[in-house]
Write a structure and sequence with these properties.
CATH class of the largest domain: Mainly Alpha
CATH topology of the largest domain: Arc Repressor Mutant, subunit A
Shape: rod-shaped
Number of strands: 3
Distance between the termini: 68 Å
Strand content: 5-15%
Length: 109
C-alpha cells in the first residue's frame, strides 16, 4: 500500500535539513550565524545619579567604607548600601570577604 506524504511535511523536513546545513556552515566559518542563533543583546539600565556618585567616590579613593560614603555624599545608609549592592551585582566593585562594609573599585577592561 502506498501512503501519500503531504507536501507540508516534506517542506518541513526540507526546511529542517536546510537549517542544519546552514548551522554547520556557520560552525565551520563559511558563513555568518543565523539571526536566530546570534546571542541576544540584553538591555542594561543606566546607573542613577546616586549610584554614579557612589561609584566615583569609591573609584577616587580606591575603596571606601559605607559610613565614609554616607558622610561624604550626604546620603542615607540604606541608599548607600543599596547602591553598593547594585554596583557589586553589575561587577563594578567588589567587597572584602572579611569586612563586607568596605567596597573596592574593580578595574574594567
Amino acid at each position: 500500500m502506498n501512503e501519500m506524504v503531504s507536501p507540508r511535511s516534506l517542506e518541513e523536513a526540507l526546511g529542517q535539513r536546510m537549517v542544519r546545513f546552514e548551522r554547520l556552515q556557520a560552525q565551520l566559518g563559511y558563513r555568518e550565524p543565523l539571526p536566530h542563533d546570534k546571542a541576544r543583546r540584553i538591555a542594561v539600565r543606566p546607573l542613577s545619579k546616586h549610584t554614579m556618585a557612589v561609584l566615583n567616590f569609591i573609584r577616587r579613593n580606591g575603596g571606601a567604607f559605607a559610613s565614609d560614603i554616607e558622610g561624604a555624599l550626604d546620603l542615607r545608609m540604606t541608599v548607600v548600601t543599596n547602591n553598593i549592592h547594585i554596583l557589586q551585582s553589575r561587577d563594578f566593585i567588589y567587597t572584602d570577604h572579611m569586612d563586607v562594609r568596605r567596597a573596592f573599585y574593580k578595574a574594567r577592561h
